[in-house]
Give the backbone structure.
Amino acid sequence: MNADTRRDFPDLYAGRLYSVLSWADLAAFWVRLDPAGWYLYAVGEPPPTMPESAGNTAEFVHRIDELLRREHHETYCGIVYADDVLRPTFIKIYDPHNLGSSCGSSKNPPLPGWIMSRVPPVELKPARPAPEGRRRWWRALFAEA
C-alpha cells in the first residue's frame, strides 16, 4: 500500500488514495507521521522546491489539524487522503470550504487545498484562486518560525 518514492508527483497525485475517515483516525495518523522530508504545497501557490524542515512540518500538521477540526462541521473527517495510512508518502488535504465531491466520483472533483509529498510537487492550476484568508493563513504559517 505504500507508494514507491521513485514515482513522480503526477503518478502519486492520480494514484489510489485512502481516506482518513474519523477524527480519532486522523489524530492517530498525525502521530505516526515522521515530519522529516516533506514538501508542503498549498495548491494555487508556487510549488516548493525543497522539503520543509521537520519542525515546520510538525507545525503545519498541528495548524492544519486545528483548521480542519474548527471548519469541517461534520462528525467525521473524510477530507484527508493518503497513499498509505500507516506509512504515507503522499497526502491530499481538502479545504473544508471547497469540497464539492472530493472523493473523485464527479467529473471535475475539486483540487485539494494542501498536499504533503515526499517527492517534489508540480504546479496544479485551480479554477479560481484560493480565498485571500486562506492565502494569508498559508503565508503566515512559518512567518513566526
Q: What stands out?
A: The first strand starts at residue 18 and ends at 19. Residues 67 and 96 are 9 Å apart (CA to CA).
